[in-house]
């Protein structure tokens, strides 16, 4: 169980215990003492060895970190630490003083040490100092005492570590705990370099990966940060965390972390869903991953094309987890569980009237009999609530089918060569929706009510959403009036989603960022950000590439210029706050630029535009997106944000010019629904002008 404090900058070896387990580090209602004890049993059973106590809303962990625990609280923590030891789980107590600590005040450091001394008296021997999610501006007293925020944190952490006698396990969470927070990047971060150089070598450092919630964590990224930190990091993994969105739950497998990482890390701790019982899958699959070896074992011949790790298959790990979880669902040995008479071994309790169980008579309704929950039900549940950056296969199929049925709804209205296909696919979609309903019914009747109550809001929500989609498809197919309430102007409250939060999101131009899959379903993650001078070369490259792709029979050099060409070519600067770029994992893949006053640009190419046009449409926009961006929603998000900025400048309308050969952008603007053709005298042949009022 011990951890040698040496060779901290070297890759993890067999001599140093690999930390594996769970961090209770989310925002929201902390788990109960009973749930934590149950967690220790599971960790021991599955081969995990660590629990990091760091609930953000335990007010003596974070907000009132100076306050000592009361006798009653101490009794609970003593019992919890003892329970962890009984199950061979290392209990790490974390404290988060960063909200208001004055680093340069010795009394503050003494208060921190006094608090941890109290916890040490409870039997705890492992500790953690967390400085995540705090302001980076130091108070005047600290600015005088320390040359940087990193120096202040390191000084206090080292002092506490030594005061506690150099514990075998001591974790430090930096303020810049992921690559996205590092300025300008990981390798050049002065903050991380200071932490790596000054933090005592016996202290491990927590790291979440490229982002707070990292889609993937690569070996190369870990090697880079290990070099800066001079030790292998311990991953605080937020891939299953859901405290940032009350509508989402994550029941997919631990994935997109190659097992080649294991020898290069100090450990992995998952910070999972706020709800305790649905974390069965997250923790179970992490345990399976931790048992995998990266020593060149035999490759799994049954791996799918999406699984490139020879030692770990997320699909198989998920099936193992769901198989075990099914037994938990059927377990009646839980508070509130619905006991089966035949399994209890006791006579059923008699009522005062000595009534016997009801037996339906001839012609009466039969007794309701619940079908038992199946493994397929849990696989479907996992698919519907998979992971932050992707839906499971069934969920993706449902989205794709609904998208196809909606786009081809004309085939249901009239007899065409597509009608039979439309009807067949509509029937298949209806079958998938029915499977969700049946899954809900069987989950609702599962004996273990503890798991059900944690899931209930989520499965109710997805059942309702699927029901709306199902009714919509039936309406497209002309099957009666199942969607009457859905389509009318005064629907029931379940016909519109999200309450006030949903209203706010629908009003914001970036609302599409919440949607993983649109039309067609997305397979990439996109970022819309403000244009900066360094983007000029990339914008010019995209402009030239799209020009070349659209030349056709007449070279562009022989075609009349567009007013916006100078804007895209970098000859004219966009108006302030009126330039955006679109990025994917490869790099810049699109741009949207605007001039709030288009008159000077028109004059520059000697284009005569009437004052009446400029009166209604004084501003100019231009946009291009590379062909690899097949999903229109990021472009819609980008143009929406740009139009909001132009409107904020006081403009009453915008126009764009497009060549007739640019069918892709003409189709995009047309489908937006707000841009319409406008008449412009003297407009060159083969150039189309579209405008929209703001």
UniProtKB/TrEMBL annotation:
InterPro entries: GH (IPR017853), Glycosyl_Hydrolase_84 (IPR051822), O-GlcNAcase_cat (IPR011496). It holds the Pfam family NAGidase. Its EC number is 3.2.1.169. It is an enzyme of class 3 (hydrolase). This is protein O-GlcNAcase. Residues 335-363 are annotated as: Disordered. PROSITE patterns: GH84.
């Amino acid at each position: 169980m011990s951890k040698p404090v040496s060779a901290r900058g070297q890759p993890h070896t067999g001599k140093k215990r690999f930390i594996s387990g769970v961090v209770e580090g989310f925002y929201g209602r902390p788990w109960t003492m009973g749930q934590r004890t149950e967690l220790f049993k599971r960790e021991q059973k599955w081969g995990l060895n660590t629990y990091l106590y760091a609930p953000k809303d335990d007010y003596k962990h974070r907000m009132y970190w100076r306050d000592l625990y009361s006798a009653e609280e101490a009794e609970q923590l003593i019992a919890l630490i003892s329970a962890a030891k009984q199950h061979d789980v290392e209990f790490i107590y974390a404290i988060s003083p960063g909200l208001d600590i004055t680093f340069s005040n010795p009394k503050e450091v003494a208060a921190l040490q006094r608090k941890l001394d109290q916890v040490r008296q409870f039997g705890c021997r492992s500790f953690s100092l967390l400085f995540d999610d705090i302001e980076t501006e130091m108070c005047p007293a600290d600015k005088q005492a320390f040359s940087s925020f990193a120096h202040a944190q390191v000084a206090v952490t080292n002092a506490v570590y030594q005061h506690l006698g150099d514990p075998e396990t001591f974790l430090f969470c930096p303020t810049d705990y992921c690559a996205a927070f590092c300025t300008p990047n990981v390798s050049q971060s002065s903050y991380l370099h200071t932490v790596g150089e000054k933090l005592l070598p016996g202290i491990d450092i927590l790291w979440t990966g490229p982002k707070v919630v990292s889609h993937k964590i690569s070996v190369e990224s870990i090697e880079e940060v290990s070099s800066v930190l001079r030790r292998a990091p311990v991953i605080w993994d937020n891939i299953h965390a859901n405290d940032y969105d009350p509508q989402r739950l994550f029941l997919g497998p631990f994935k997109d972390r190659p097992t080649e990482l294991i020898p290069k890390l100090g450990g992995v701790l998952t910070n999972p869903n706020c709800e305790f019982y649905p974390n069965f899958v997250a923790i179970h699959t992490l345990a399976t991953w931790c048992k995998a070896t990266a020593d060149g074992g035999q490759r799994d011949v049954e791996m799918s094309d999406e699984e490139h790790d020879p030692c770990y298959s997320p699909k198989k790990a998920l099936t193992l987890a769901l198989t075990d979880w099914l037994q938990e669902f059927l377990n009646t040995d839980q508070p509130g569980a619905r006991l089966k008479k035949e399994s209890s071994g006791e006579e059923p309790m008699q009522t005062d009237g000595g009534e016997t169980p009801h037996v339906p008579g001839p012609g009466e309704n039969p007794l309701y009999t619940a079908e038992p929950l199946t493994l397929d039900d849990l696989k479907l549940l996992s698919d519907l609530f998979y992971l932050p950056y992707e839906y499971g296969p069934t969920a993706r199929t449902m989205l794709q089918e609904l998208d196809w049925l909606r786009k081809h709804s004309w085939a249901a209205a009239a007899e065409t060569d597509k009608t039979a296909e439309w009807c067949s696919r509509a029937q298949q979609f209806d079958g998938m929706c029915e499977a969700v309903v049946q899954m809900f019914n069987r989950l609702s009747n599962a004996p273990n009510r503890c798991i059900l109550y944690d899931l209930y809001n989520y499965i109710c929500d997805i059942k309702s959403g699927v029901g709306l989609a199902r009714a919509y498809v039936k309406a497209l197919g002309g099957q009666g009036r199942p969607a009457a309430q859905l389509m009318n102007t005064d629907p029931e409250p379940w016909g519109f989603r999200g309450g006030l939060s949903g209203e706010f999101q629908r009003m914001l131009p970036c609302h599409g960022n919440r949607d993983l899959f649109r039309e067609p379903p997305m397979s990439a993650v996109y970022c819309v950000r403000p244009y900066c001078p360094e983007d000029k070369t990339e914008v010019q490259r995209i402009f030239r590439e799209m020009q070349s792709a659209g030349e056709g029979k007449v070279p562009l050099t022989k075609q009349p210029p567009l007013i916006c060409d100078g804007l895209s070519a970098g000859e004219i600067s966009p108006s302030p706050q009126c330039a955006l770029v679109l990025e994917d994992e490869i790099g810049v893949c699109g741009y949207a630029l605007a001039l709030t006053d288009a008159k000077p640009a028109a004059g520059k190419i000697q284009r005569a535009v009437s004052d009446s046009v400029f009166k209604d449409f004084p501003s100019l926009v231009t946009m291009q997106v590379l062909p690899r961006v097949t999903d229109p929603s990021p472009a819609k998000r980008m143009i929406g944000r740009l139009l909001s900025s132009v409107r904020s400048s006081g403009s009453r309308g915008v126009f764009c010019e497009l060549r007739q050969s640019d069918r892709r952008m003409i189709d995009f603007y047309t489908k937006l629904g707000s841009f319409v053709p406008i008449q412009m005298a003297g407009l060159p042949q083969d150039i189309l002008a579209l405008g929209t009022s703001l």
